[in-house]
Design brief:
Layout lengths: L1 H25 L4 H22 L3 H10 L1 H22 L5 H8 L1 H13 L3 H4 L1 H8 L2 H21 L5 H29 L5 H27 L4 H28 L4 H9 L3 H13 L7 H20 L3 H14 L4
Helix pairs in contact: 1-5, 1-12, 1-13, 1-14, 2-4, 2-11, 2-12, 3-4, 3-11, 4-10, 4-11, 5-9, 5-10, 5-14, 6-8, 6-9, 6-10, 6-13, 9-13, 9-15, 11-12, 13-15
Length: 329
């Protein structure tokens, strides 16, 4: 259960992304600055964190030995993940971005067989059959049904253009983030821990963020003080805390596709955290009956996912403890 609790904590910190990005957009900040500043501010924080643990040298060694794959999958895992999220936040509220982001639960399951190193030898159909955990997929669909209900409760207040431009970039991000994370876990082979892997991906994606900063400067001028402050908060809460926690949780279960799917499903709670924060910070209206039903399905699906991804031995032990305790009063 420990990886799941770590995943839930990371979802709490990730929720800050959606709210702070929405605040920056409402204040007139450029989405390109919001995207690039996060990773540029993350870099010194991560360098300090990893240096304190004496782990900087292995990071540079890994990059030096496989520069091409690290550059490619860091671009996919970070740039194609976060730039679309920031762009989408221009056209939709934080809850919509957070809700659409939950597509990563199912997309992460579907792309897993394609990322396996031996799928070409076995055939893609055979790889899917052996790698897709049906129970995890079914419970993921429960969570997605909840997400759909949450979206439906607010759909009347959103234009078709906002819906389209708020969803399509997120779909790209939903595939890019798990793909980059999973592939670089394979490439690093367990030689880097979570903070080191996040640092390596940040270093390898830095040239792309600098180019995006140049674009932001040309099109929007320098960032405002408010955008710098909010970007720093995103870098600390989401970029460092949430990403390191999530990478740590996925690394703990990287060899078990079903438990890995369970950890990735914890990110569905971002919808709950983002909605609560948006109501408190931005005075957004509370959801109606449909919205509450969706939130219940999201949380309920998460609980089912947690038990479905427990190892069989742990399930048996928990059953024995429950039976030995007898009925509660």
């Amino acid at each position: 259960m420990k990886p799941l609790w770590i995943g839930i904590l990371s979802a709490f910190f990730f929720a800050f992304t959606f709210i702070l990005n929405r605040i920056m957009n409402l204040e007139g900040g450029s989405w390109a600055w919001s995207a690039s500043l996060r990773y540029e501010m993350m870099l010194p924080l991560l360098l300090g964190l990893v240096a304190l643990r004496g782990g900087v040298a292995p990071v540079f060694r890994e990059i030096r030995e496989n520069p091409g794959p690290w550059m490619l999958w860091s671009f996919i895992g970070f740039v194609l993940f976060y730039a679309p999220i920031c762009f989408a936040s221009v056209y939709g509220p934080g809850w919509l971005v957070a809700a659409t982001w939950q597509l990563t639960i199912v997309i992460g399951l579907m792309i897993a067989p394609v990322l396996q190193e031996n799928w070409t030898k076995r055939g893609l159909a055979a790889s899917y059959k052996s790698s897709i955990p049906i129970a995890a997929l079914c419970t993921s669909l429960i969570i997605l049904l909840g997400v759909v209900l949450v979206q439906a409760s607010h759909a009347a207040s959103i234009t078709g253009r906002e819906l389209l431009l708020g969803m399509l970039p997120i779909i790209v991000a939903c595939a890019a983030y798990p793909a980059g994370n999973r592939k670089l876990m394979q490439i690093s082979g367990g030689r880097l821990d979570a903070p080191q892997r996040v640092l390596a991906m940040t270093l390898c994606s830095l040239p792309f963020w600098l180019m995006l900063s140049l674009y932001a400067w040309i099109t929007s001028g320098p960032p405002s003080g408010g955008q710098l402050y909010h970007s720093l908060l995103v870098a600390v809460f989401s970029g460092v805390a949430a990403t390191v926690l999530f990478f740590q949780a996925t690394q703990m279960v990287r060899n078990n596709p079903q438990r890995l799917a369970g950890v990735e499903a914890t990110q569905s709670l971002e919808v709950v955290f983002a909605l609560i924060a948006e109501v408190i910070v931005l005075s957004a209206p509370l959801p109606g009956m449909t919205g509450w039903a969706g939130l219940i399905l999201v949380v309920g699906g998460m609980v089912i996912h947690s038990f479905a991804t427990l190892p069989k031995a742990a399930q048996r032990a928990q059953t024995v403890r429950t039976e030995s305790a007898g009925p509660s009063n």
